[in-house]
Design goal:
- This protein is mainly alpha-helical.
- It has one domain (5-85).
- Helix content is 78%, strand content 0%.
- The protein has 4 helices and no strands.
- The N and C termini lie far apart (40 Å).
């Protein structure tokens, strides 16, 4: 995604809002690093479009609050897949 950084910041911010995307998801979608996305939406966007910046911050704050849940789900999925691969029935975890 080669373009002017200020323009890229606005595009990334709009994508994060529209898709409720994480920094990682936005980086993957646009083929750039997480560091670049973070810098664009936390520094450049604040100067370029303060109203959009505030909306992006709200989405990213929700993502930050939920990340421990996503991490736990990923760990659970990992061990379930390992158990199935090894021919064991997955344990009932109550979920």
């Amino acid at each position: 995604m080669k373009m002017q950084p200020d323009r890229r910041a606005v595009i990334l911010g709009q994508y994060i809002i529209d898709c409720r995307a994480t920094v990682r998801a936005a980086a993957s979608k646009f083929g750039i690093s997480k560091s670049t996305v973070h810098k664009d939406v936390s520094e450049r966007l604040k100067k370029q479009d303060p109203q959009l910046y505030a909306k992006v911050r709200d989405v990213l704050e929700i993502n930050k609050q939920e990340r421990h849940i996503r991490g736990g789900m990923a760990t659970q999925r990992k061990y379930r897949e390992l158990a199935e691969k090894n021919g064991h029935a997955p344990e009932n975890t109550g979920t």
